[in-house]
């Protein structure tokens, strides 16, 4: 169960785009996601997006589009770790996104807030 009631807020970006987010700042309709939303959300999380951040964000969105479900954190760690392994991926994940996969990656990638989650 979510800790904050489902209170929706509209966020208007400098680009003129308007997004509906829940009480934790997660996009309510992932289909409306744009890179501008990602940059805005990342800035609010204190993250300056690098090419490596974008690789993971785009991978998460592609996986969700291909499989109809968000990839679990352990798959993100495997993606990041590549030949170096899952532990290297875990270390990089928390270097890129210090507050973790659910709190930052899924939010910046424009996914809905998960109701329950395994951090892998």
UniProtKB/TrEMBL annotation:
Family per similarity comment: Belongs to the DsrC/TusE family.
Q: Name one GO molecular function term.
A: sulfur carrier activity
Tagged with keyword Ligase: no
The keyword Iron belongs to this UniProt entry's keyword annotation: no
What InterPro entries does the record point to? DsrC-like_C, DsrC-like_dom_sf, DsrC-like_N, DsrC/TusE
Keyword annotations for this protein?
Cytoplasm
Biological-process GO terms, alphabetical: tRNA wobble position uridine thiolation
What subcellular compartments does it reside in?
Cytoplasm
Q: What is this protein called?
A: TusE/DsrC/DsvC family sulfur relay protein
Gene3D superfamilies membership: 3.30.1420.10, DsrC-like protein, C-terminal domain
Read off the Pfam families from this record: DsrC (PF04358)
GO cellular component assignments? cytoplasm
Which PANTHER family does this chain map to? SULFURTRANSFERASE TUSE (PTHR37010:SF1)
């Amino acid at each position: 169960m979510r800790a904050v009631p489902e209170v929706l807020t509209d966020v208007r970006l400098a680009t003129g785009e308007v997004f509906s987010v829940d009480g934790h700042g997660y996009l309510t309709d992932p289909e409306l996601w744009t890179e501008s939303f990602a940059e805005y959300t990342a800035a609010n999380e204190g993250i300056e997006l690098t090419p490596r951040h974008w690789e993971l964000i785009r991978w998460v969105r592609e996986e969700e589009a291909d499989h109809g479900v968000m990839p679990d954190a352990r798959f993100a760690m495997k993606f990041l770790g590549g030949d170096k392994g899952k532990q290297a991926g875990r270390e990089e994940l928390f270097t890129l996104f210090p507050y973790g996969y659910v709190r930052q990656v899924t939010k910046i990638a424009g996914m809905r807030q998960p109701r329950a989650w395994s951090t892998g």
